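Saturday, quiet lab. Running sequence design on the structure tokens for the scaffold JK sent over.
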């Protein structure tokens, strides 16, 4: 789990999201975070679940008429539990 300077004794909940976009992997991530932020407070970090070095692997997508229809990316999001 990422550690941020200045944070003490926090407890995080981790949830898994799948974002999608017709444009790019980055947009798929942003779409997931934007929608989740409407109902989930204090999101602090995310990680793409399927990675190898700097390369994203097992990113899903749909093919429409021989071209990429949209991308899907699975990511984990950590948010602070209120106490």
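Result came back. Writing it out in full:
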């Amino acid at each position: 789990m990422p550690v941020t300077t200045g944070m003490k004794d926090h407890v995080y909940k981790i949830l898994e999201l799948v974002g999608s976009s017709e444009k790019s992997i980055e947009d798929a991530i942003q779409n997931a975070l934007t929608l989740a932020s409407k109902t989930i407070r204090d999101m602090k970090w995310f990680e793409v679940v399927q990675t190898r070095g700097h390369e994203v692997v097992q990113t899903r997508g749909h093919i429409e008429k021989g071209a990429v229809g949209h991308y899907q990316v699975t990511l984990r999001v950590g948010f602070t539990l209120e106490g």
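Notes for JK: The mean pLDDT is 80. The first helix runs from residue 25 to 36. Ask whether to fix the surface positions before the next round.
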